[in-house]
From TrEMBL:
Residue ranges crossing the lipid bilayer per the database entry: 50-72, 93-116
GO cellular component: endomembrane system
Chief location of this protein within or outside the cell: membrane
Subcellular location: Endomembrane system
Protein name: DUF202 domain-containing protein
UniProt keyword list: Membrane, Transmembrane, Transmembrane helix
Pfam hit, one: DUF202
Domain DUF202: 14-77
Membrane topology, as annotated: Multi-pass membrane protein
Amino acid sequence: MTDAGADAADRPFDVGLQTERTLLAWRRTCLALAVGNAAAIKYLSDALGLWATLIGFLGLVLSVVAWVLCTIRYRRAHGGLVREEGLIVSGRLPATVTAAVGIAGLAGLVVLFAQWHPW
């Protein structure tokens, strides 16, 4: 015999799978940030030294944190929808992704000014 409560928690909330698609989109974003930061570590370490490595690793850590937060966000949203409660989500995930993108932008500016010699 199966438990009806367990089946309800595992089934998708809607036919269109919107929450699942949103989870996949956030995960693709986190993966792209991680790849960009790993490439920055590989290719910018020679030009900028330790700073490129530190900024890249900070971006990688933020990418992993964002991955965990998107999973937590999905589970909360899915659980709230299945139990017919409200959506229980926070703004930590967008803030973490914004910080990771900001660090990548800072690394780009550092590279620009370190390699730019107009004279």
